[in-house]
UniProtKB/TrEMBL annotation:
Heme b binds at H183. GO terms for molecular function: heme binding; lactoperoxidase activity; metal ion binding. This is Peroxidase. It catalyses: 2 a phenolic donor + H2O2 = 2 a phenolic radical donor + 2 H2O. The record marks R57 as: Transition state stabilizer. Its EC number is 1.11.1.7.
Length: 320
């Protein structure tokens, strides 16, 4: 969504079928499925707008472990969601809410994996970002193990490691930078970046890539011996608006996570970041929205289960 000369313009992007998923997969079997997911997400968003970033992150973490199969939604002491890399995941109640409504209307039809993909799209739209056609037809996985979450991207990853992890999922450098742009909404805990403020590389000093002004702000928000669970915006300028200010912040040394700031360390990722950061309003912002939509469709198709693979769960938190 862009504001131009006082007018609000909704940008809707229609993208082609990807792989063996299909846009409108439920148009006959459960025609109101996408409307129900959207209204459910909107209801929760109206109560707590920060849930949008949670749902977007939940989908990302699902797709990077065994593909986009809803495995991150399973409850259990050794399930995927209990892995250290998945600390702080949220939005499970939104998916469960949508699932219960869909089961009442179209039992055994809509997969949890598809609900999660649709909810991520709707979260972006509600935050002022683009809408896009989500190819559906995913089935839910039957395996969820915390040990398999070890390859999830980490805020400590160097740019080389980030590129390797994305490439392993069929995503290139452009996809990496574009998808990291999801950090335009959302927050993180002080514990995940405080080392950058006081003892970077165990030198007792701050990370020199942080601008001095921003360092002062972060130290005030996250004192050395303060609460590590305190939440801080990943985009200091507009944490609830889906826009390109996140890229400008990173370009100017105002990235919160080390992994985000490291996007400037590589010529390829730096080039994409600088193009997105070039202008806060206007056509460049719209281009990011278009590229983000494409990258989300690509990511949402990672190692999907289709046809007779997997199952359609009756409840998203447990296998049938």
């Amino acid at each position: 969504m862009e504001v131009i000369a006082g007018l609000v313009v909704i940008l809707t992007i229609v993208l082609p079928v990807t792989g063996q998923l299909k846009t409108g997969f439920y148009s006959s079997s459960c025609p109101k499925a996408e409307d129900i997911v959207r209204s459910t997400v909107e209801s929760h968003f109206n109560t707590d707008p920060t849930v949008a970033a949670g749902l977007l992150r939940l989908h990302f973490h699902d797709c990077f472990v065994q593909g986009c199969d809803g495995s991150v939604l399973i409850s259990g002491s050794s399930a995927e969601r209990t892995a250290p890399q998945n600390l702080g995941l949220r939005g499970f109640e939104v998916i469960d809410d949508a699932k219960s409504q869909l089961e009442a209307m179209c039992p055994g039809t809509i997969s949890c994996a598809d609900i999660l993909a649709l909810a991520a799209r709707d979260s972006v739209g509600l935050s002022g970002g683009p809408s896009w056609s989500v190819p559906t037809g995913r089935r839910d996985g039957r395996v969820s193990s915390s040990s398999q979450a070890s390859n999830l991207p980490s805020p400590l990853d160097s740019i080389a490691v980030q590129k390797q992890k994305f490439a392993a999922k069929g995503l290139d450098d452009h996809d990496l930078v574009t998808l990291v742009g999801a950090h335009t909404i959302g927050q993180t805990d002080c514990r995940f970046f405080r080392y950058r403020l006081y003892n970077f590389t165990r030198t007792g000093n701050a990370d020199p890539t942080i601008s001095q002004q921003f360092l002062t702000q972060l130290q005030a928000l996250c004192p050395k011996d303060g609460d590590g669970l305190k939440r801080v915006a990943l985009d200091r300028d507009s944490q609830t608006n889906f826009d390109v200010s996140f890229f400008k912040n990173v370009r100017d040394g105002n990235g919160v996570l080390e992994s985000d700031q490291r996007l400037l360390d590589d010529a390829s990722t730096r080039s994409f970041l600088q193009k997105y950061a070039g202008n806060i309003r206007g056509l460049l912002g719209l281009r990011f929205e278009f590229e983000f939509s494409k990258a989300m469709v690509k990511m949402s198709s990672i190692e999907v289960k289709i046809g007779s693979e997997g199952e359609i769960r009756r409840a998203c938190s447990k296998f049938n």
